[in-house]
Amino acid sequence: MERKTYASGDCIFLEGEPADCAYLIEEGSVELTKRKDTDAVIISVVEKGEMIGEMALIDAGPRSLSARCPVKTTVLVIPKDEFDHRLDAIDPVFQRILLILIRRLRDQTQATTDKSTANR
């Protein structure tokens, strides 16, 4: 696995892009944002020890959010084939549960974004 460092303001990935890896944050933080019209709504800020980009690898969907570094950030890049290898080792029932949870999270993220921009 590769270690990569991003400068403050760098984009790790964009909403809608296909996924080829996940990222484990080793230092720094990442803002996860959702596009709404011409704005970017911050959905979450994730920090050291957390993972980003895994949902799109699990359900083979596009990236649901964009990831931007507000500060210098170092991540461990987990390639899709390594991630898939680890996911394949999980019981199929739990694989299905993960897919259901990801679908619900994607729906909730969209609903939250819709609601926050409607209140402007």
Descriptive labels:
globular, 120 residues, Jelly Rolls, 8 strands, 4-stranded antiparallel sheet, alpha+beta, 3 helices, 35% helix
Any overview of this molecule?
This protein has 120 residues and is α+β, with helices and mostly antiparallel strands. It has a single domain (2-118), classed as Jelly Rolls (Sandwich). The chain has helices at 54-59, 80-88, 92-118; strands at 2-6, 11-13, 21-27, 29-36, 39-47, 51-52, 66-68, 73-79. The strands form two sheets. It has a four-stranded antiparallel beta sheet with strand order 1-8-3-6. A hairpin with a 2-residue loop joins strand 4 (29-36) and strand 5. The radius of gyration is 15 Å and the shape is globular. The mean pLDDT is 91.
Strand content: 35-45%
Q: How many angstroms does the end-to-end distance come to?
A: 43 Å
Low-confidence stretches: none
Structural class: alpha+beta
- Strand arrangement, largest sheet? 1-8-3-6
Taking Cα atoms only, what radius of gyration do you get, to the nearest Å?
15 Å
- What is the CATH class name? Mainly Beta
Give the overall form.
Answer: globular
Extended strand count: 8
What is the CATH homologous superfamily assignment?
A: Jelly Rolls
What is the N-to-C succession of helices and strands? EEEEEEHEEHH
Give the CATH architecture: Sandwich
Short account of what is shown:
The protein has 3 helices and 8 strands.
List the helices and strands and how they pair.
Layout (H helix, E strand, L loop, with lengths): L1 E5 L4 E3 L7 E7 L1 E8 L2 E9 L3 E2 L1 H6 L6 E3 L4 E7 H9 L3 H27 L2
Antiparallel strand pairs: 1-8, 2-7, 3-6, 3-8, 4-5, 4-7
